[in-house]
Amino acid sequence: MDLQINGKLVQVDADPAMPLLWVLRDLLNMTGTKFGCGVAACGACTVRVDGQAVRACVTPASTLAGKRIQTIEALGTPGKPHALQQAWIAEQVPQCGYCQSGMLMAAAALLDKTPKPTDADIDAAMTNICRCGTYQRIRVAIKRAAGIPPGSAVKKRA
């Protein structure tokens, strides 16, 4: 099957039912996307498909033909990190770091859809689990990346 991953057309020989996570990790050696729970609950495997946050552990690769898949490997570069990656570092978000690739991909999808998110927007979009409990730092980092000054609130939309 042909998949568009990080702007490149990639051909993979995989069972159509194989989850995208295992196509990425086992067939393409793209290990930035992590395995967490295998049932779409934790979000460690989150990637973006056509801009939307998607749990790769339960998404059959065969359902993604013609769609744009973005993994953490394409969110930014070492020379030009994404604004979220810069904010993650500035706010010292990661502790163990295991969930962070999924968190960053979910946050990127949020900011694409809602450039100035409220706390409620962040809470609704960020359903990923962080065992280290850095949720407050994640919220601050998302706001930083969105250009929302620390301590200011974004008004709810009508």
Report on this model:
It contains 5 helices and 5 strands, in the order ββαβββαααα. It has 158 residues and is of the alpha+beta class. It folds into 2 domains: 73 residues, Roll (Ubiquitin-like (UB roll)); 63 residues, [2Fe-2S]-binding domain (DNA polymerase, domain 1, Orthogonal Bundle), CATH 1.10.150.120. It has a 5-stranded mixed sheet, covered by helices on one side. A hairpin with a 2-residue loop joins strand 1 and strand 2. Helix 2 crosses helix 5.
Can you summarize this structure?
The chain has five helices and five strands. It has 158 residues and is an alpha+beta fold.
Order of helices and strands: EEHEEEHHHH
End-to-end Cα distance:
44 Å
The parts where pLDDT drops under 50 for at least 5 residues are: none
Strand content: 5-15%
Strand order of the largest sheet: 2-1-5-3-4
What is the total domain count?
A: 2
Work out the helix count: 5
Number of strands: 5
Radius of gyration: 16 Å
- Mean pLDDT over all positions: 94
Shape: elongated
Please outline the helices and strands.
Elements: E1 2-5, E2 8-11, H1 20-27, E3 46-49, E4 52-55, E5 68-70, H2 83-90, H3 100-113, H4 119-125, H5 135-145
Parallel strand pairs: 1-5
Antiparallel strand pairs: 1-2, 3-4, 3-5
Helix pairs in contact: 2-5
